[in-house]
Every structure is written in C-alpha cells, then in structure tokens.
Design brief:
alpha/beta; Elongation Factor Tu (Ef-tu), domain 3; Rossmann fold; 3 domains; 8-stranded antiparallel β-sheet; 5-stranded parallel β-sheet; 13 helices; 13 strands; 50% helix; elongated
C-alpha cells in the first residue's frame, strides 16, 4: 500500500489528462451551440458563439505549448502562454456565462440573480476564480541573503518564515514573468531556511552572477516530490550534481526516514562548499560521495543495490536529470526494488 501511495507525485498526469478531457468536452459543447445557432433552434445571439470560439482557440494554444517538446525548448514562452491565456480564458468564461445567463433568464422569465444562483456552472466558475486568486493574495517581496558558493551554485537564505520536511518555494524577480520552484531546507539555527540554486538556465545563471537581495515569492511553502518518501522508514537517496538541493529538503524536521545518501558530482567541495557537505552528513553520517573529477562517471546501480541490501532499505529516491532518473528507476524496479523519481509533471 505504501509503495503505491508514494507515487502520489504523479499528479501531473492527472492535471494534463483532465485538461485534455475538458477540452474534448468543450469541443462538443461548442459544436452543439453552433449547430443550434445556425439551425435557428437557439435563442442565443452571435456574441456567445464568437466568445466560445475564441475560448476554444485559446484552450488549443495552451495544450499545444504544454507539449513536452515545446515546453522543454521554450519554457519561458510555455509558462507565459499557460498563465496569461489561462487567465484570459477564465475571464472570457465569466463574460460568456453572464451573456448566456442574461439571455436564458429572459427566456425563462426569471431574474438574472436568481438564475445565476441556481446555475451550477456559476458556482464552478467562482471556485475556479478563487483558486486562481488565492496564491496571489500571498504575493510578497522578501529579503534574500545570498551566499556565493561557486560559479555553478549560490545558496539563498530566507528569514520570512521557516520550513519543514519536503517543502519548496516559488521564486521570481518579477511577479508577471517566469517563476521557478526550489526545494527548501532549514538553516542550522532553525529560524530561517535556504534554497540551493544551481546553474541550469538563464534565470539560475543570472541569479549566480547577479545575486539578488530581494525576490518575489507566491503563495506559501508547498510539499514537493520528496514528501512522498515520508511513508517509508529507511530510504536510500540517490542524486547527481545539483540534485543534492532537493535532497536537502529531507532535513526539514526530525520526523523523517532513516537515510543513506549516494551523491555523484563534480568537485563537491569546490562547487558547493563545506557547509553543504556538512548538511549532507546530517542526512547520512557516512554518505557515498563520488567525485567525477577523480573517478569519472560510474554506474551507480550496483552501488545502490549493495547499499539497499546492507541498509535493508524500503525504497530508493532518485533525483537527477530526466534521463538518469528514468534509467536508474527502471533498472532498480527491474530488480524488484521500490524506486521513485520525479517525473516531468511532478
């Protein structure tokens, strides 16, 4: 049961699946509206028909840019299209509903207010509007204390709140531009927390070169993929390079599984500094750290299998790039070991 429950982080598939299903339903809805309008069977005017087709075009655009190929190559365009087109669709749905309700209430000889209150679509739409607005109510510009680690990484310290096991934060320089999610881990004194930012794109590179003193955060700290590992008692954590950042979120509190760590990276001390290595040692007093500058890249699967056997681990958590994560998880599951790694939509 716990092995199945730990796959809860696959919610991204549910999100995209529901989106496609809703689009198919909406295509049918627009088709029925169009047929009734052109056949003269409907009392609706041309305005809601035009709005319906504009919404249809926007929904199609959202789906197209969300395709993994486009999303990977043009992530900033995906995020902006997804956000602003989504907001516009909801706004147009409000207008469409009001026009429809006004014309329908007149036809049924009811007041507009009473018709809306008895219309389920109105309440569904209100819930959607509240769900969109809610995270932005917590939009804040917070103070950041950057700690330069190397040309590849920077550690950002925050004091506006504290963190716990497996939580992450959404950050950006401008609230209407691209947002980036980072795992969080507590600072030693426990009254602040940090996020490890590694060079992985334009935004993170700029964050290292031009270290921010303030950033925007949205909503509250939310649980990420790592939180699913809490259902186990003994976990082997496997990571490469900057994947150690999300792994450090396991230090959020003392209520965590017993951990062993396997970390393969280039020049860990030079790249991330002694303080990060000390945090890794808090997770595992005897971590397996593979310096690729000395040994080159090695096949971690035999090392993982041996450690799982010695530690009697219940699960393996793999956090790396998509190719390595998928490969290692597949090989471990092929040997009957419960292995988990974040998927594209985690």
């Amino acid at each position: 049961m716990r092995r199945l429950a730990a796959k809860v982080y696959h919610y991204g598939g549910v999100h995209s699946g529901c989106g496609i299903a809703a689009f198919v339903w909406y295509v049918g809805f627009v088709g029925v509206m169009s047929r009734e309008y052109w056949s003269g069977q409907s009392a609706l005017s041309l305005a809601p028909i035009i709005l319906a087709y504009i919404i249809l075009a926007l929904l199609l655009a959202i789906i197209i840019v969300a395709h993994p190929t486009f999303r990977i190559k043009k992530h900033d365009y995906f995020e902006l299209t997804h956000r602003f087109s989504g907001w516009l669709v909801v706004a147009l749905f409000v207008v469409l509903l009001m026009i429809f309700a006004d014309q329908a209430s007149t036809a049924y000889n009811e007041s507009l207010g009473h018709f809306l209150l008895t219309l389920p679509a109105f309440w569904f739409l209100m819930v959607t509007v509240v769900a969109i607005i809610h995270p932005w109510v917590f939009l804040r510009k917070v103070k950041v204390q950057p700690e330069y680690l190397s040309s590849h990484a920077v550690r950002l310290h925050f004091t506006h709140t504290t963190t716990t096991f497996g939580k992450g934060i959404q950050l950006c320089r401008h609230p209407l531009q691209d947002w980036h999610g980072f795992a969080t881990f507590p600072d030693p004194e426990g009254k602040s927390f940090s996020a490890l930012v590694s060079k992985a794109g334009d935004w993170t590179s700029a964050c290292i070169q031009d270290q921010p003193t303030h950033l925007w955060k949205r909503g509250v700290l939310t649980y990420g993929f790592g939180y699913a590992m809490r259902v186990f008692k003994r976990v082997v954590v496997v990571t490469t390079g900057s994947g150690i950042g999300p792994c450090l979120s396991f230090l959020g509190d003392d209520n965590r599984p017993n951990l062993r760590v396997i970390w393969q990276t280039r020049a860990p001390l030079k790249t991330y500094g002694q303080n990060i290595l000390n945090l890794v040692s808090e997770m595992d007093k005897n971590p397996v750290i593979i310096d690729t500058n000395q040994s080159g890249r090695v096949d971690m699967v035999p090392i993982i299998r041996q450690l799982v056997k010695e530690f009697d681990a219940e699960a393996v958590c793999v956090i790396s790039n998509p190719f390595v994560t998928k490969k290692v998880v597949y090989e471990l599951e092929s040997h009957g070991i419960s292995a988990y790694g974040p998927i594209f939509d985690s």
